[in-house]
Amino acid sequence: MSDNGAAISIRDLVKEYAGQGEAPPKLALKGISFDVPQGGIFGLLGPNGAGKSTLINIMAGLVMKTSGGIEIWGHDIDRDMRNAKLNIGIVPQEIVFDPFFTPFEVLENQGGMYGIAKHLRRSEELLRAVHLSDKRDAYSRTLSGGMKRRLLIAKAMVHSPPILVLDEPTAGVDVELRRQLWELVGDLNSEGVTVVLTTHYLEEAEQLCDRIAIINHGELIANKPTRELVGMMGEKIVAITVERDVTAPPVSESFLKSEKTGERTIEVTYDKSRVTAGQVLGLVRDQGFVIEDVTTREADLEDVFVQLTSGAAATA
Ligand code: ADP
Ligand code: MG
């Protein structure tokens, strides 16, 4: 691990993709720095296009960084990619397999690539761990999407790395499989594996991860224990349709924000630890509005981004 005890240490990481044809160059990572502590489940959260896969693919040696540095378990990827790679298992976002190998063969081949002697390979054990023992000898092309993803996790763990990185493990995956994947990730973590996963689902990160970093447009906008971050998301929004056209939105000290969103619609943002939806509606009514319809929602990732990027909270 790094001198500071981090499993992964990222410093001033910049990636600029060269433009192609008419397309201008794209600055996908704008100088990102953070540490992944050992032993936890670390969530890298951000919307599509934020730069998550770029970051993961640089760690995997699939994308060349423009500048900055990464240490994986204390090994600098520029000076010692070999040892960096030995300490990390990465499941990329895209599923790629040779369709003509069986799961058992996939794992054996990977073991061979890492130079692990036959009698020391863990192929059977790994197949059991990802619940694929009964598919041991099936062609990979006959596996379902979920099975392939599980096989990729087993493949990433062939060399028993202390760090496992999963890029969007649950994108396009059904509820049941998602639950299975979470369980698998939890099991690996309780056996001591440091897990890093990327997702664009806030709820998923919230449930799985003990620490969450948020990136947006190639910049790190938060990096906090999940509990703290969730505390910042105590905002709730109530959307109200009223009977008459709105000239000015209602005002109250109890509202964090109040705006007219259409001819007859208003959105009020409030802190749910301070007021209830009922109180908010009461205050709106007190100001002469006749309410026809109401929906409430929790602040979602978008709202949190707005909050994080607009206030002092932006300093992670
Ligand atoms: P995420 O994984 O968070 O969705 P990506 O890292 O895939 O984000 O992409 C970050 C940005 O870099 C996006 O704007 C994307 O279009 C761009 N990008 C990704 N890969 C390439 C590439 N090979 N060439 C040019 N631009 C790229
Ligand atoms: Mg991605």
Oligomeric status:
single chain
Helix content: 25-40%
Helix/strand/pairing category: alpha/beta
**How many helices does DSSP assign?**
10
By CATH, the architecture of the largest domain is named 3-Layer(aba) Sandwich
The end-to-end distance, rounded to whole angstroms, is 23 Å
Q: Roughly how many Å is the radius of gyration?
A: 23 Å
The counted number of beta strands is 14
Proportion of residues in β-strands:
25-35%
What are the bound molecules? adenosine-5'-diphosphate, magnesium ion
Task: List the helices and strands in order.
Answer: EEEHEEHEHHHEHEHEEHEEEHEH
The CATH topology of the largest domain: Rossmann fold
Approximate shape: elongated
Supply the CATH class of the largest domain.
Alpha Beta
CATH superfamily of the largest domain: P-loop containing nucleotide triphosphate hydrolases
The major β-sheet equals: 6 strands, mixed
Low-confidence parts, pLDDT < 50 over ≥5 residues? 311-316
When the domains are counted, the total is: 2
Spatial sequence of strands, sheet with the most strands: 6-7-8-3-9-10
Q: Indicate the mean pLDDT.
A: 90
